[in-house]
């Protein structure tokens, strides 16, 4: 489709786009290339791109809101109800990496002729950004000593994943087993993390018992022994370490006030309060930019609140906590969630037996269930089946995230056609920066608050999760759909991306190890310079100052 710019004497751009198969979209709702060259043909292309860029920002905000405010709470409640670990490397890690993973699935699903450059650029680009820019910023803001074992474990696993991805790119094809290998490697990583923590906790418990015994015997001076104090310091430091992914944090005071007000309101008033996309208490505390952001995202938040049920994590020691139960709104969710889902995934108009459409059955069944839920529940008391709404919310939120990710990918591909840019550079910049800006803000904030170890841990564990499942899941699906092998179109620019990530990881491993795990300001400055050099080489390759060619 990008060859549009290289056609001589071409005046009918709209006709070219409509008649070129590579300009079509495989998933999504809008063909943005046709939108720019056909629907917006009466206005300058640069103005049309500005409108499209604003829409892209809106969707990116929607992706973040859906993951943070609707997807993650459902995961937290599900993991609690299934008694799953909250250590961050299993179920809940998926919440933090959901935008990256679903963007990768959408990118590879829309790949034309094996060109997965958008996914590769985003995953490797985000990896370099987080391990260089975010980690470097943390080291500059708050120099500290890193935890040895977790740092070495995460960097070594990340290097192994990077090498595996590089080998697949060099081979220019990926088999079913190679794709599944990414997922298997993540399972091995989880086992190592869980086993390591179990052993570490056992050791700390045994050491604690020994120290208690020493204290009981009156040998308090033994606490000042170098070995004992070192173990104690390590144990306390481990308490501050976080794993890939972040646990969902609930503002308990706000929830308590909210459900107290609910008990005093009518059913309709509770419904209107809960679908309000702007929370009045939060609105009053926000500054001008914060209020503009709330207004900007409010249309999508309203739709999300009408279709995705959110069950909050139970507030401890509060028997009156109804966990965000809303009798009328949750009854509406029983209808709107499934109906929205079947139309978005494209099965609503399929017919059963060639006679009855699926949407008809879903509408009838869900309407009956919604009435049952309403008349078998109370306004001020959550029903016994309330936890089931977390599973419904999880499914509908996944559909929302995947749908938004598809639109984001399609917009980026349209920008690539208009600007004559490769998918790799778009993934490296717009998609990678968009997915990683939240990490930069969150991790540097933790560093300023005195918790740099939390931030630096997420800098290596989080991107590792995204790379392994961001390649493993979509390529497994692609291999299944292509007879067991998916052939890749790889350029020299994409190999530079893999090389840049490898350089970042290897240099961090060497420098931090030889500096006795001190994260210093010079190290942080080096990482920032490394990212600038990496981005410069990638841009020079994109514009062919450094020759870019297909391998």
From TrEMBL:
Which keywords does the record carry? Answer: Antiport, Calcium, Calcium transport, Ion transport, Membrane, Transmembrane, Transmembrane helix, Transport
Q: Which residues form the Sodium/calcium exchanger membrane region domain?
A: 54-194, 390-538
Kindly give the Pfam families that the UniProt entry links to this protein.
Answer: Na_Ca_ex
Q: Where in the cell is it found?
A: Membrane
An example GO CC term for this entry is: membrane
Single GO BP term: intracellular calcium ion homeostasis
Note the Gene3D superfamilies from the entry: NCX, central ion-binding region (1.20.1420.30)
One GO MF annotation is: calcium:sodium antiporter activity
Q: Which InterPro entries match?
A: CaCA_antiporter (IPR051359), NaCa_Exmemb (IPR004837), NCX_ion-bd_dom_sf (IPR044880)
Residues crossing the lipid bilayer are 45-67, 116-138, 150-167, 179-199, 328-349, 355-375, 387-405, 411-433, 454-475, 495-514, 526-546
Topology in membrane: Multi-pass membrane protein
| Protein name from the UniProt record | Sodium/calcium exchanger membrane region domain-containing protein
């Amino acid at each position: 489709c990008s060859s549009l710019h290289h056609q001589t004497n071409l005046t009918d751009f709209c006709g070219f786009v409509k008649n070129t198969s590579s300009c079509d979209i495989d998933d999504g709702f809008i063909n943005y290339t046709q939108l720019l060259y056909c629907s917006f043909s009466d206005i300058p292309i640069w103005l049309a791109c500005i409108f499209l860029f604003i829409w892209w920002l809106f969707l990116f905000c929607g992706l973040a809101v859906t993951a943070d405010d609707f997807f993650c709470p459902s995961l937290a409640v599900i993991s609690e109800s299934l008694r799953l670990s909250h250590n961050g490397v299993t179920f809940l890690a998926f919440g933090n990496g959901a935008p990256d993973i679903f963007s990768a699935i959408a990118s590879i699903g829309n790949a034309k002729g094996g060109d997965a450059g958008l996914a590769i650029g985003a995953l490797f680009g985000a990896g370099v950004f987080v391990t260089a820019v975010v980690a470097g910023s943390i080291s500059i803001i708050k120099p500290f000593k890193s935890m040895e074992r977790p740092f070495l474990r995460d960097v070594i696993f990340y290097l192994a994943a990077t090498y595996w991805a590089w080998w697949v790119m060099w081979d220019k094809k990926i088999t079913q087993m190679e794709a599944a290998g990414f997922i298997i490697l993540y399972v091995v990583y989880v086992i190592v993390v869980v086993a390591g923590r179990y052993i570490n906790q056992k050791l700390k418990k045994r050491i604690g018992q020994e120290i208690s015994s020493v204290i009981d015997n009156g040998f308090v001076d033994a606490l000042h022994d170098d070995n004992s104090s070192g173990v104690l310091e390590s144990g306390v430091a481990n308490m501050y370490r976080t794993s890939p992914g972040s646990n969902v944090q609930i503002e308990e005071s706000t929830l308590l006030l909210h459900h107290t007000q609910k008990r005093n309101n009518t059913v309709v008033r509770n419904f209107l309060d809960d679908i309000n996309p702007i929370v009045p208490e939060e609105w009053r505390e926000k500054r001008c930019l914060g209020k503009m952001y709330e207004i900007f995202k409010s249309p999508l938040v309203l739709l999300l609140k009408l279709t995705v049920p959110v069950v909050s994590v139970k507030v401890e020691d509060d028997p009156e906590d109804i966990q965000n139960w809303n009798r009328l709104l949750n009854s509406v969710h029983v209808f709107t969630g499934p109906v929205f889902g079947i139309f978005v995934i494209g099965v609503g108009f399929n017919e059963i037996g060639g006679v009855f459409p699926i949407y008809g059955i879903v509408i009838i069944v869900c309407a009956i269930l919604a009435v049952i839920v309403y008349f078998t529940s109370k306004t001020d008391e959550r029903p016994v089946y309330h936890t089931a709404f977390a599973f419904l919310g999880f499914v509908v939120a996944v559909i929302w995230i995947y749908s938004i990710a598809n639109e984001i990918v399609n917009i980026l591909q349209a920008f690539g056609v208009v600007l004559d840019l490769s998918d790799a550079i778009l993934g490296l910049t717009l998609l990678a920066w968009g997915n990683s800006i939240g990490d930069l803000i969150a991790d540097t904030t933790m560093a300023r608050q005195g918790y740099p170890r939390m931030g630096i841990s997420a800098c290596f564990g989080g991107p590792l999760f995204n790379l392994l499942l961001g390649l493993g899941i979509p390529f497994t699906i692609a291999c299944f759909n292509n007879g067991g092998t998916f052939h890749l179109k790889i350029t020299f620019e994409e190999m530079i991306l893999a090389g840049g990530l490898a350089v970042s990881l290897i240099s961090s491993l060497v420098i931090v190890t030889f500096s006795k795990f001190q994260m210093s300001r010079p190290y942080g400055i080096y990482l920032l310079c490394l990212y600038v050099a990496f981005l410069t080489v990638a841009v020079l390759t994109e514009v062919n100052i450094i020759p870019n060619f297909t391998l």
